[in-house]
Design brief:
extended, about 55% helix, about 100 residues, 5 helices, mainly alpha, 2 domains, two-stranded antiparallel ribbon, 2 strands, single chain
Length: about 100
């Protein structure tokens, strides 16, 4: 078996912790690290094109991943906060203006 594929049989695949710029990144699903390493060799423009192509393919298949337990808990927390404070909102026009100001447009 080619060395590039040996990791596919690794029983310890799963949570993959990587250190990047002093931050720990966690990949929660088994990942083909060979493909990820190949993608990292691409230019930023090529990486963005790859991400867009993958995202378009996922959308075309009408596939939506289920939220994680952490995401569900965060959604529940936000909903409870909103229900407890229904008037504590920011209009979209202010959010949009703030975001555009932040990126310098």
């Amino acid at each position: 078996m080619p060395a590039a594929r040996e990791h596919l049989l690794d029983p310890n695949r799963g949570l993959d912790f990587k250190e990047k710029e002093g931050r720990k990144q966690v990949y929660t699903l088994p990942m083909n690290t060979y493909l990820l390493d190949q993608a990292r060799q691409l230019s930023v423009e090529e990486q963005l094109e790859l991400v867009e192509a993958l995202w378009d393919d996922i959308a075309r298949r009408n596939t939506v991943p289920a939220p994680t337990d952490a995401q569900k808990a965060e959604l529940d927390r936000r909903l409870a906060d909103h229900e407890a404070n229904p008037d504590d909102v920011v209009p979209w026009s202010k959010v949009k203006a703030s975001a555009l100001a932040h990126i310098g447009r």
